[in-house]
Structures are given as structure tokens and as C-alpha cells.
Amino acid sequence: MEIVLTIAGSDPSGGAGIQQDLKTITAHGCYGATVITSITSQNTLGVLSSMPVPPDVVASQLRAVLSDLEPTAIKIGMLPSRAVAEVVVEMLTDYLRSQNPVDVAVVYDPVMVSTSGYPLMQQDAIDYIIQKLFSLCTLVTPNLPETEVLLAKVKDNHLVADIQQSGRILSQYYATAFLLKGGHADGPLTTDWLFETDGTVCPFTTERIATGNLHGTGCTLSSAIAARLALGDRLSVAVGKGKDYVTAAIRRSVDSHIGHGNGPLI
């Protein structure tokens, strides 16, 4: 059985973060391991608070998992502080050196701000992650607001009008593949764009589903892609299957009534 490690924050309501990652990884037939980076208090109505886990505790968790389980895919979500990000980068760098790097996929979902607007990452953490973490990644999966932040580090403007140009700029500048998620755009269709380092561009278009239950969508997608990569799919196939999994989960969740706000995927 393939092992997928998720490094992310905890959501006590179960709709996002570590909890949703584990559900998704298990649904794909993989074994999920976890390293918790932040303990949040949140539910379907929003994030109430977020407490970063001390860096030495994050390091201890990573050491315990990586010295024993040897995951073939790693999904990274919330990295709340630079100190936590430094620990993750240092220990993942050592782990990848000890393995065949080609055989270990790293998927990073840059969780910067919650859907309700709560900041989940310190500014100095963003700068450090861009400089040090991206080079370890197989894929980075920003939404459109996060894409604007990343582009601003490359250019003195925000999101380029043509999303294809934006993706090419990011994948070339950071030398890693990007999946730009289009869920924040308007219109009856939603398109995510995959930009690979060899210049290949692949759109994934689905019908927009009218629902108020979208809590944890980004966590679900990145975990699904990581699981598919662990199972041996090439990147474009893993993204396509991950998208299919999320779309099916959204459809199942349309009529669910879990919580009083933005409900989770089921």
C-alpha cells in the first residue's frame, strides 16, 4: 500500500485540513500519515482562531514519520509561520536526498487565507516558502487570489489578464509545475489550468455546480492528486482524476446539511 504524508493544519469540524486530507487519501486506497502544523478552531461558519504548532514539535512529528514510513507522496498545506516552514523545508530536503527524488511526489497547496478571510500564513513565511520550498515541489496548486500574490513576487503587477500567460510565467520562473485553480472566477464553467515545466499546458473544465457546500475543496483536490501520484499516475492524469474526484464529491454534497454555513464535501 502506498503511503501519503499530509503536512497541514487541523480542522476540528472535519471539513478541511488534516481531517479532510486523511479521508481523501483513504478513499484512494492509500495509507495516510500526518504532521500537524497548526491547530485551528473553525467550522462551516469560518475560522475563529489558529495556533501554530511549535517548530520543534513539527520537527518531532516529521522525524517520527519519515524515519519509519517512507511516504511516496507528500501533500503540504498550511505552513503558518516561517519557523515552521524552515523545519519542513530542511527535513524534506534531507528526506528527498535519501530517496530517489523522482519517486517522491510533493504537492503544495499554498493556504494563505481562509475562505472566510482569516489570514493563515505570516508574510515572512510566504517569502521563505517561495524561495526555498517551491524547488522541492512536483506541483503547486494556488487559487486565483494566491496566484496574484505569487505573480506579484515576479512582476510589479497582479494577475495577468490571460491566465495562460500567468501560468507560464509562474512555471518558468519557479521551475515547477503549477495548477491554477479557476473556482474564484465567474461564469457557468470553471477551468483549472495545468502548466508543466516542459511547457505543456492542459485545461480541465467542468460545469460550475450551484452549491453552498464547498468547505475544504482545495484540500481535497491537492490530497487526491498526491494520492494519484503515489499510485503511479503521471502528473496530468493525476490532476484529471483528482478533479473528477472533487467534482463527484461536490455533487454528492449539494443537498447535504452539515453545519450552518459553507458545508464540507462528503
Topology:
Elements: E1 3-10, H1 17-27, E2 31-43, E3 46-52, H2 55-66, E4 73-76, H3 82-98, E5 105-108, H4 123-132, E6 139-140, H5 144-154, H6 163-174, E7 177-180, E8 189-195, E9 201-207, H7 217-230, H8 235-253
Parallel strand pairs: 1-2, 1-4, 4-5, 5-6, 6-7
Antiparallel strand pairs: 2-3, 7-8, 8-9
Helix pairs in contact: 1-7, 2-3, 3-4, 5-6, 7-8
Question: How would you describe this structure to a colleague?
Answer:
GO terms for molecular function: ATP binding; hydroxymethylpyrimidine kinase activity; phosphomethylpyrimidine kinase activity. It is an enzyme of class 2 (transferase). Residues 11-265 form the Pyridoxamine kinase/Phosphomethylpyrimidine kinase domain. This protein is α/β, with parallel strands linked by helices and 266 residues long. The chain has one domain: Ribokinase (UDP-N-acetylmuramoyl-L-alanine:D-glutamate ligase), CATH 3.40.1190. It contains 8 helices and 9 strands. The protein has helices at residues 17-27, 55-66, 82-98, 123-132, 144-154, 163-174, 217-230, 235-253; strands at 3-10, 31-43, 46-52, 73-76, 105-108, 139-140, 177-180, 189-195, 201-207. It has a 9-stranded mixed β-sheet. Helix 3 (82-98) runs parallel beside helix 4 (123-132) and helix 7 (217-230) packs across helix 8 (235-253). 47% of the residues are buried.
What are the secondary-structure elements, in order, as H or E? EHEEHEHEHEHHEEEHH
Distance between the termini: 24 Å
Global shape: globular
Low-confidence stretches: none
CATH architecture: 3-Layer(aba) Sandwich
Number of helices: 8
Estimate percent helicity.
25-40%
What is the radius of gyration? 17 Å
> What count of domains describes the coordinates?
1
Task: Look at the structure and give the CATH class.
Answer: Alpha Beta
In CATH, what is the homologous superfamily? Ribokinase
GO cellular component, one term: cytosol
Keywords: ATP-binding, Kinase, Nucleotide-binding, Transferase
Protein name: hydroxymethylpyrimidine kinase
Enzyme class: transferase
